[in-house]
Structures are given as C-alpha cells and as structure tokens.
TrEMBL record:
<feature type="transmembrane region" description="Helical">
    <location>
        <begin position="108"/>
        <end position="132"/>
    </location>
</feature>
<feature type="transmembrane region" description="Helical">
    <location>
        <begin position="234"/>
        <end position="251"/>
    </location>
</feature>
<keyword id="KW-1003">Cell membrane</keyword>
<feature type="transmembrane region" description="Helical">
    <location>
        <begin position="197"/>
        <end position="214"/>
    </location>
</feature>
<feature type="transmembrane region" description="Helical">
    <location>
        <begin position="309"/>
        <end position="329"/>
    </location>
</feature>
<dbReference type="GO" id="GO:0005886">
    <property type="term" value="C:plasma membrane"/>
</dbReference>
<feature type="transmembrane region" description="Helical">
    <location>
        <begin position="258"/>
        <end position="275"/>
    </location>
</feature>
<keyword id="KW-0812">Transmembrane</keyword>
<keyword id="KW-0472">Membrane</keyword>
<feature type="transmembrane region" description="Helical">
    <location>
        <begin position="35"/>
        <end position="54"/>
    </location>
</feature>
<keyword id="KW-0813">Transport</keyword>
<feature type="transmembrane region" description="Helical">
    <location>
        <begin position="350"/>
        <end position="376"/>
    </location>
</feature>
<feature type="transmembrane region" description="Helical">
    <location>
        <begin position="417"/>
        <end position="450"/>
    </location>
</feature>
<feature type="domain" description="Na+/H+ antiporter NhaC-like C-terminal">
    <location>
        <begin position="160"/>
        <end position="451"/>
    </location>
</feature>
<dbReference type="GO" id="GO:0015297">
    <property type="term" value="F:antiporter activity"/>
</dbReference>
<keyword id="KW-1133">Transmembrane helix</keyword>
<dbReference type="InterPro" id="IPR052180">
    <property type="entry name" value="NhaC_Na-H+_Antiporter"/>
</dbReference>
Length: 476
C-alpha cells in the first residue's frame, strides 16, 4: 500500500529553514566556507523531510531538476556576461570608458550620473547583470579614480540597474513576475511606474546631495595618474564605444540576450586584436580567464584583472543549488504550509502587500536565487489575493519589488555573489547604499496601507466563489 503524503508542520518548516539559515550565515560570515556547501546540505535537509512525509526520493530528485531547468537561461546569461567583461577589458573597451569618464564626469555629480547611466543601460538591455558588467564596472573604475568610496559607488550602480531591470519589458524578472501572477507585461510595468518613478526621484536627490561632499575632495593628481596609466597600458580610442552601441541596440530591439552578449564578447576579441595588439590566442583566452594587468597601481589592477567565464562558475553553482532547493521546498509542501499560515493573518491590502514583499525576500534568503523568489512568491500568495478580491497587478508588483530589489542584499544569493564579485565590494558593505531598493519597498507598503496607486479597473481580479477560482479548486 502506497504511503500517504503529508504536509509538513510549521515546526518542521521552521527546523529545515532555520537550520539552512544558520548554515548559510555561519559558512559565509564565520567559517569562510563557500555558500555552495550550505546549499548542498540544504538539499538533503529538504529531501530528508520529504522522505519522512511520504515522498519518494526519485520524485524529490525530479523536483530539484525541474527547478534547475527553469533557471538555465540565467546560467547562460551569467556565463556570457563573464566572457563579455573579460574581452571588453582585453579589447580596451572598459578602459576607454573609464578614461573618458574620468575626463568628463565631475566628482560632485558622479553618483547621480552613475545611477542614471546604469538605469538607462538596464532599461534598454533588460538585464541588471549585463548593465552591471558593462556600465557598472566602468563606473566603479571612474569612482575609485575620483576618490568616491567603492561601497557608495556600488550602491548607486545597483540602485540604477535594479530600477531599469524591473521596468524593462525585455527583463527576465519582469516576464517571470508578470507571467507567474497571470498579468500582462505592459499592465505589470504600468502598475509599478508611479511608485518606481517616485522612488527614483527621491533616490536621485539623495545621491546628488550625498555626492556634493566629493566635489572638493577629489584628488585630481590621482585621477591624472590613472588616466596616464590607462593610456600606457591600453590604446584608448573613441572606437571602443562601437561594440557597446551595437550590443545595446540589439538588446533594445528584443534580440535574445544570450547570443547578443556573446556577440559583444566576440567584438571584444576583435577589438583586442585590432586595437590592443593582442594575439588571437590572448584574445580568445580572455573569454575564459581575466587579462593580467600589472600597471603598478593597486586600484587600477583590481578593476582590470577580472572577467572571463571562469570567474562566473561559483555563481553558476549557486544558481543550480538555489533553484534546486526552491524546487524541493515547493515539492515537499513547505511553501503550502507557509501560505496557510499567512492566510489567517492577512486582513487588509497593507498586510497583504507587506507579507508578499517579506515572502519574496525570504525566498531570496532560502532559495538563494532571484528566479526562485519570482517563481515561488506568486505561487504562495496568489490564493490570498483571489480570496480578498485584490487585483493581481498588486501581486505582480509586490513580488517584483520584494524579489528583484532585494536579490542583491543576500550574500549567498546568485545576485549577491555576482554583484559582489563583479564590483569588488562585499555584499554587507554595499547594502546600506542600495537606497533605491529601500525607498521603493517602503513606498509600495506605505501606499498599500493608504490605498494609493491601486489598479482601477479590476482587470485581474479573480473572484472566489464556492471555493473555486476560474473553475479550479481554490488554494490558500
């Protein structure tokens, strides 16, 4: 006789997730062990509970594999970004952007310019990772040359790239949050616009005011030294902007991200051969491993000795383990148990929004990947929106704000590891300066309690009658 499958109790859920959280924190903050090991152990915690509840091991393994499959697009883009950064440094593209940036951007408006440039890049390309790997890494170099603390610059970069990413119709996060909430992409973006633009203006003002202190303190001698070293180690040319323009235009025209970014990496190889006198072998190797630059300037070497597919393999492992862990949490019933616990505590739209944002953040914490958060949050919370007759555009909006804007705040998440490694700043160091994220989340929750910026036409309200939703059995 086949064993009956049970739902986990809240105590069992707390034990599994609490143990994983302790492991994740201990490995990253205390023991200096890779987070990938904690995630691997997390699989067995979830599987052990699943077997105890009556699941077959093969089914649990299949659930993990299915979760991983959903994130293969992110893995490909991650590897492509690594190749792009490597060849764009070898080809003199990033050094040229830094050189001209140091020449033209005044220190007092640098943080504002950083946020605007990165947000426009992410908006046009639909990828926060691509924007951080191109415009972001260049702005880190410019900022350090101007004497701006690296964590502050990283905060401005992340404020920009996540703003653009969550409003771009080309973005995977936008597509995922809207589709999982059963909302059209255009309606999803329109629902986010009022709060996002308000937060953007407030963040821009904050970075402008904060940036004034650097206007008179920039060491122009250091700036000139960096520019001279750039000129000595690379052939600086305005032609370096051609690959950037080509990649941005193709992404803006909705060509698939992976082949376009790899095309950009290929152009970087060509630029390395034509303009930097690299051999074809050196240019090809830049796809895989970072270029070795020894300029004698520590900050410059730190910026330019990075990139290549090899530097992304750790993040790839995080995504694989994180997505698999998310699939297990769903299969074992941990998510359903959490959803049922929330149901009795949600009494108004303010609570509903706050719980959705918290759920999305916790999905980043426990699932270690933004994809996990954007897949699981609508699944956990949708029944509560339908039960209360709340338009699902509020579900998609809150899922996006809670999932996308907090993804870089978790040191062991895919975004946290990627951004920290790419920008050369630890997660805990840049998180206090992710002002766009904090302001946006504060506004979306506050406006929900106030009843402001609600969808007016009820287009995506799913009414619950006789315990059914659109003819299907309603779930919590």
């Amino acid at each position: 006789m086949e064993q009956k499958i049970k739902l986990p109790s809240m105590g069992q859920v707390s034990l599994v997730l609490g143990t994983f959280l302790v492991l994740a924190f201990a490995f990253t903050a205390k023991l200096n062990l890779p987070i990938q090991l904690a995630l691997c152990i997390g699989w067995f915690l979830a599987m052990g509970l699943g077997v105890k509840l009556g699941h077959k091991y093969k089914d649990l393994e299949g659930a993990a594999a299915e979760g991983i499959f959903k994130g293969t697009g992110a893995i490909l883009i991650l590897i492509a970004v690594g190749a792009l950064v490597g060849t764009w440094i070898a080809g003199g593209i990033v050094p040229s952007i830094i050189y001209y940036g140091l020449m033209t951007i005044h220190p007092s408006i640098f943080l504002l310019a950083t946020m605007v440039i990165c947000s426009m890049t992410a908006l046009a390309t639909g990828t926060s990772w691509g924007a951080a790997g191109t415009a972001g890494i260049a702005m880190m170099g410019i900022g350090q040359g101007l004497g701006v603390p690296a964590p502050v610059t990283a905060g401005a970069i992340l404020s920009g790239v996540y703003f653009g990413d969550k409003l771009s119709p080309l973005s995977d996060s936008v597509i995922l949050a809207s589709s999982m909430s059963e909302v059209e992409i255009v309606d999803h973006i329109k629902g986010m616009l009022p709060i996002s633009l308000t937060a953007y203006v407030l963040t821009a003002i904050a970075f402008t005011v904060y940036g004034f202190q650097f206007g008179g303190s920039a060491d122009m001698a250091q700036v000139q030294e960096v520019m001279n070293l750039m000129d000595e180690n690379f052939s600086i040319s305005i032609m370096a902007f051609v690959p950037v323009i080509i990649v941005l235009l193709l992404l803006a025209k909705k060509f698939p991200s992976y082949p376009v970014i790899m095309l950009g990496a290929g152009l970087g190889m060509i630029w390395a051969i034509l303009f930097q006198d690299r051999t074809p072998i050196e240019a090809m190797n830049a796809l895989w491993a970072p270029l070795t630059v020894d300029s004698g300037n520590a900050f410059l070497d730190n910026i330019l000795n990075r990139g290549g597919m090899v530097n992304m393999l750790g993040s790839v492992a995080v995504i694989i383990f994180g997505l698999g862990f998310g699939g297990l949490l769903d299969k074992v019933g941990i998510l359903e148990t959490i959803a049922r616990t929330f149901e009795n505590r949600i009494t108004n739209e303010g609570n509903l929004t706050a719980y959705t944002v918290v759920t999305a953040f916790l999905a980043n914490v426990f699932g270690s990947a933004m994809y996990v958060s954007l897949i699981l949050t609508p699944k956990i919370m949708s029944g509560n929106y339908d039960r209360m007759g709340v338009d699902r555009r509020m579900l998609s909006r809150s899922s996006e704000f809670g999932g996308t804007l907090t993804s870089g705040m978790v040191p062991w998440s895919d975004n946290g590891i990627f951004m920290a490694g790419l920008l050369g700043v630890s997660t805990f160091a840049y998180v206090p300066y992710m002002w766009m994220s904090f302001i946006s989340i504060g506004l979306v929750v506050a406006f929900a309690y106030m009843g402001k910026f609600r969808p007016a036409d009820g287009k995506y309200i799913k009414k619950v009658e006789d315990h059914t939703v659109d003819g299907q059995l309603a779930t919590a």
